[in-house]
Design goal:
The structure holds two protein chains of two kinds.
Chain A lengths: L2 H9 L6 H20 L2 H17 L10 H19 L13 H4 L2 H6 L2 H12 L2 H12 L4 H8 L3 H24 L1
Chain B lengths: L2 H13 L4 H13 L1 H19 L7 H22 L5 H51 L5 H14 L5 H13 L3 H13 L4 H13 L3 H14 L5 H9 L5 H14 L1
Helix pairs in contact in B: 1-3, 2-3, 5-6, 6-8, 7-8, 7-9, 8-10, 9-10, 10-12, 11-12
């Protein structure tokens, strides 16, 4: 059964089917939000919120629309709503020193130096650039798919992703020097 | 080649997205330009790092929370869809029905009580009127009081009981005042459809000595078409003591009733 068929069933009142969508998507959405928010516990809450919205606002799912695009759009909205509500808690950049506190300690032990470096470099990117890299590089989404989620053109996405990679490289090797 | 253009080409190169021509240009640039090669190495490293980054695992709590949320949503969904078929609805409907029925019964009972109350008050009122009337008729001192008593009977008594009829008959037959006797007769005439009143009137014709009352009685009997008095009328026509005017009325009565 396709995601779209299942979502149609949920929309018409068969809520139980939502658990199938949860099985298929919760890890991807959690990874997206955890890397975006750089906070695992928060990411779990936000992921929960995404699925709550999917169920609550099931009637706003347009028939024929791609489910993956829709759920990522919902996830982006959930994140940005949270960000708006807690604007004062964050500056333009996530505090790199605090990252270790917010991501689980398990990662600190498991991750090698390169991965930690990557993580810290990601934290230095602007939200939009970090988001684009998570979608296209960490989650291996095609530019077309990301363009659908963000409601823009493939060419625009490509340019922005390239700039984000270039920026990440700068931060990465800058941090490596120190 | 400007840096951003070069970066973009190298990224596509690493991604394997370049066409043959472009790929050759990049390869030449990398061999020719050490800075470009360094850029290539560094870009490749970060891209590789992102590509192979480990996946984060959510805690088991996420699944538990989702299942709980889903169960709650499903719980909420049911009543919204079938509100009119829920037992709660029936219970409320029954309560409303009982309330309406109770109110109706209460209203009916209070109305019954009110009616009984009104009836009792009316009876009381009638009894008072009757007592007053009887008292007036019985007043030996004043003829005008007795006259008023007879008038009260005429105007206010709707249905005369035996007591009233007897009092009026007595007055009609025995009151010393002609006007009072006439008034009593007038009052009785109103109840002439009642059998005992009729009997009393017929009996009175036999014993009545007052010519005015006799004439009035004969008129009333004619109006009542009371044929039972023909014998009595015949007796009056031959009665030496009767006044000629009374005899004349008796003759007229005989003619009209026969």
């Amino acid at each position: 059964m396709t995601d779209e068929t299942i979502m149609e069933a949920v929309k018409s009142g068969d809520l139980q089917q939502a658990s199938m969508l949860f099985e298929r998507y919760h890890k991807r959405i959690f990874n997206f939000l955890a890397r975006l928010a750089m906070d695992r516990a928060l990411a779990e809450d936000l992921t929960q919120n995404v699925f709550l919205r999917i169920i609550k606002y099931r009637n706003s799912y347009r028939e024929g629309a791609r489910f993956q695009s829709w759920i990522y759009q919902v996830a982006r909205n959930v994140f940005s709503d949270h960000y708006q509500a807690h604007k004062n808690k964050y500056s333009d950049f996530v505090d790199v020193d605090k990252l270790r506190d917010n991501m689980a300690e398990a990662e600190d032990e498991q991750w090698d130096e390169k991965e930690k470096l990557l993580h810290r470099s990601m934290a230095l990117l602007a939200d939009e650039q970090r988001e684009l890299l998570i979608l296209t590089r960490f989650q291996h989404m095609k530019y077309e798919e990301v363009a659908q989620v963000m409601n823009t053109t493939v060419a625009n996405i490509k340019v922005k992703v390239h700039r984000a990679i270039a920026k990440l490289r700068e931060h990465y090797f800058e941090l490596e020097k120190n | 080649m400007e840096k951003e253009k070069l970066e973009s080409l190298i990224i596509d190169f690493i991604d394997g997205k370049l066409l043959e021509d472009e790929r050759k240009i990049v390869e030449q640039e990398l061999m020719r330009n050490p800075a470009a090669y360094k850029l290539y190495e560094e870009l490749k490293e970060v891209m590789q790092a992102m590509h192979t980054a480990s996946r984060l695992e959510p805690s088991a709590n996420l699944k538990l929370q989702f299942d709980k949320m889903l169960a709650e949503e499903m719980q909420q969904q049911k009543p919204a869809k079938t509100i009119f078929f829920q037992p709660v609805f029936y219970r409320v409907a029954a309560a409303v029905l009982l309330l309406v029925l109770g109110g109706g019964v209460g209203f009916w009972i209070s109305r019954q009580q009110q009616q009984a109350e009104e009836l009792r008050a009316m009876k009381e009122e009638m009894e008072k009127t009757k007592q007053m009337m009887m008292g007036m008729l019985d007043n030996q001192e004043s003829a005008s009081q007795r006259l008023m008593g007879a008038n009260v009977a005429y105007k206010t008594i709707v249905k005369a009981d035996d007591e009233i009829v007897n009092a009026l008959v007595n007055t009609m037959n025995e009151d010393p005042n002609t006007n009072v006797r006439m008034a009593a007769l007038e009052a009785l005439s109103k109840f002439h459809s009642q059998p005992h009143v009729r009997k009393a009137l017929i009996a009175s014709l036999r014993t009545q000595k007052d010519p005015l009352v006799q004439i009035a009685l004969i008129h009333l009997m004619i109006d009542m078409k009371e044929k039972g008095i023909t014998e009595e009328l015949k007796r009056i026509t031959t009665d030496d003591e009767a006044l000629p005017a009374v005899k004349d009325e008796a003759h007229v009565g005989l003619l009209k009733l026969s």
